[in-house]
Specification:
With 328 residues, the protein is of the alpha+beta class. The chain has 3 domains: 83 residues; 126 residues, no CATH class; 69 residues, Sporulation related repeat (Alpha-Beta Plaits), CATH 3.30.70.1070. The protein is 49% helix and 9% strand. It has 13 helices and 6 strands.
Length: 328
Amino acid sequence: MRSAFAGALVAIVVAAPAMAAVKDGVDAWQRGDYASAVAIWRPLAEGGDGDAAFNLAQAYKLGRGVPTDLGQAKTWYGKAAQAGHIQGAANYGLLLFQDGDRRSAMPWIEKASNAGDPRAQYVFGTALFNGDLAARDWPKAYALMTRAAAAGLPQATTSLAQMDQYMSANDRQKGLQLATQMASQPVPPTGRKLVTGGTDIAVGPTTPAEPSDLSAPPPPLRPVKVKSGPAPAAVKPTIKPVAPKATEAVVAASGGRWQVQLGAYGSQDGAAAAWHKLAGKLGGLSPSYQKAGAIVRLRAGPLADKSAAEKACAAAKSGGAACFPVAP
């Protein structure tokens, strides 16, 4: 004779088969029956199913079918990561990082970076550039940041512009070649399609260390943040670039061969959109789009000399753009 508890459980899962699959929970979730979805996923997650563990973590993070509990979410992301779920590894690593356990976080972030997660590539690339919890490797750092920028992560675009100021042309070229190799390699299996959607774990902007002072300890990566809001269809970076305020043009073209670099983007359309936002601050200058591996560099000119280029950068930076002078 079934117990009252067993009968209630059967009712919760809407008479799901004894061997309910993750997809059964997906169907319940998409109907808005979050409690049933959680009841289906929990035993599967406890049995080691990475997709079920990831979905259960999402439910705890979003507070659907269970109370919102980021501690439980982190636990289940960890179980998903241990089962080989790449998004689980990325989210687990970033939550560990946020909680200050950076040493434990980095192996998971590296694993997710190797599998192509752009958030993880951004954080691990910064660690490689700074030599912080990872051996310093500038070409690989540049490659990972290039891949993250190509995936649309705006902080990576800013970091690439900063790296360009300090890295040799030879190291940048090595990085671009490595980025091309990464893009051509098959991505390891990441499990089934994300089924709960939900907001993702997003990274905050970081600043690479000044390489000119290699004896100084690198600055720490800034903590990641957990975003909240409506659930998108899949995990994507949620940080958006800051839109510059409209002002009158403060820079006039002055001839010469100097330019300024205003960022690196995953496509010419992205670079053109960035220029459209900045053109009002750089009146008289003309944009140029330079293909470099998987990215497109946005530059503007002509400018007479370094002083004019620095003035142009000051105007661009007031609009939230990264900028540095480029000599002839």
